[in-house]
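step 4 of 6: structure.
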Amino acid sequence: MNDTITAKQRQRITEELLGISQRQSGLMAQLSVPEGGQEEQDDENEVVYAQLEALAAKAAELILQYLDNLPERRLSRCPFTGEVLSMRIDDFGLDGFFWNNSAPRRPEQKFPETYFAIDGALKLEGAPEKSPLLCCPGPDVPYVLPRLLQYDEIKVVVSHIKIGPHTAYLMIYYADPAPQGIYRVNDWGTERYWETGTPDPELFTPGLYIDVPAEPGEMDFDLKPWIKAGKLLWIAPGDENLTLHGHASGCPYLDLPGSRNPKYIQNGEAWEFDPEEEVQVQKDMDEEELRKLLQEIEKGEE
Amino acid sequence: MNTINEPVAFLVKQADIAALFSEMELQCNEGSAFYRANAGSVADTDIRAVYGELLADQDFLRACRIIAQPDLYVTTRAAGTQGLSETRLHRKKTEGDWAVLIETVEDDGILLTAFPDYRAYLGAWTEDFAGAHDATTANYIPPRVSLEEFLFALHTVDSFRRVSYQNMLDHAFMDRVYIRIPEFNESMANSVKSMDIRWLLPAFMAVTPGIERYRTNLGVENLTMLLNQDFFEEGKLASGEDVLVFGEAGQVMGVEFFHSWLFSCGFEINVAGTGNFQVVERLFIAPTVLTNHFVRLEEAEGGKAMVNHQAYTKEQLEIKLDELFSNAFSMEVAPVRITEKSSPAPSSGAAAVKRDATPSSSPAAVKRDAATSSVVPASKNAENSGGVPRQAKAATQGRPAAPVQTVAPAQAAPKFCRNCGSKINLGVAFCPSCGFKIK
């Protein structure tokens, strides 16, 4: 295919891939339950292996079709150079393999040299997609990561995109020049980002995927001070020219209603990660551990 | 190749440059500050007698070779409380990393300051002129806007100042400061023509070398950007008249420049290309109390330009200048053709010195020995040597001297009174506004 994928084609590919995935699981299960003698088992396995190989080849072909033909969208603009950032993205919905949280399928992107990291948020508009793939599109409203913006050379641009019926916000970080020795953040909706080696050049060169999640505790949803400080610029929803704005007045991304907790979506259900619950659990554990420690100390003194 | 660790400065008479170059058998190329300067004049100075020691000084000879036949030069124009000035930095690759700054000083003097490399020059420049900010501020003119839109934004800043001054004079207080649309348009037309560097728009036009080469159409359609970026909001007076009310961007930048802007500077970097020098960068910098406004002009189609404006901390400004200069200084250069008429003119005069490259150095700080026509620095060196005149070869923590008057190749620029800033005609002895002695 040379043209951009259509919604129907994308749906077909997704369904076929899910079917293949199910069959692969079934075949793998057969391999793991040996019956009869070793020779018989090897013969049976050979058949299964051949089937698995055929399925893998078909899956690879479908993924290639999917990746090669995802639509390219103009999403952001570098605040240092003015260069437009275009990205090939599955914006048909959250049920595509692009959004598979633990094993996303994403095409190689050609971003501006000043690109640093991509984060995002998404507010569901209507029922979540019914897909077995786990999707983690972030909280309902945009936020920034102060640990990145503390560096003079890093700025973030907030923009808007529709993913299916849902309203999504992109927080794309740019750096000029790229700071050395700091970790970035996982690509939006994934558990990884490609680290080219800036934190530990000798260790990582030429690069590898690493997992640096945006922790809920470090998300700052109060965007206005960051605009005033010149660290956050924004692009109005629907602005095809992607004009950057540095003023807080009229910014459509301030004080938006919605949950500040990251959410997960799977099989038509959405649920949130509540950091306060986590903290409470951690706190309870800490108190228990402290109590035990004090008891041990007291014992020792006796 | 000999090297220096600190800037070294030489003071010569402008009128003697041609004779000096002739003595050194140097001809100027088009990149030299002295190209076309006083061509055809006749020397009546015994150059050997006056500049004998300097002519034997290898550093001086090297500096002269660089300024006569550069393969890269940087024109720098500055506008501040001391009026408009221009300096030129020269580099010749075959002479190593040296960057030699030429500036005119009082009493027909030319100060040649040799820096070990461009980084030393930039370090000195930023130390002297950049705002020492360590926190970022909002950029209300994010990249990229057209040159026309940028000019409108600058005039909006000026308009806020204009209205603020008027309100002060009228003892008027306004919750929402506004300007009438005809007044905005008319004052912009006058501002562009004025070249009055006390205002941001004319200062930008005056100090950015080569700005006049871009095609501009200052039509009202450029107001759209101002409304879009909240420089203005549309308003209506009780009379029904439409006005432009200053928005967040207009007010913040207006107040910033109203209270804290004193200086602006333009750079143009030229590198020898095939057949001629090519402009590789045009920059404008205006430090304020909040930030260092940095502007980079980018060529666009149809002879137009786009503007990339940034609000930089001092460190960011240093990094960006270093990046742009580094790119230019590492470019491949083509051989520069030298034409016959490029010789600068010899003329009378007797003053030669190699001296400290301190920012305060000027002919007034130079002690002259009438008998020998030699000159020495008047301060520390003279005292330490018991007042005995000598040729000083001192290298100190060098900085470029404060920008001074335009050197040879500069375009004729309007002058302004150093005391009150009023525009004055060339040749007048006193400021018509405040009476300050001009010459």
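step 5 of 6: annotate
 - The CA atoms of residues 93 and 172 of chain A lie 20 Å apart.
 - Chain A touches chain B through 22 residues (CB under 8 Å).
step 6 of 6: archive
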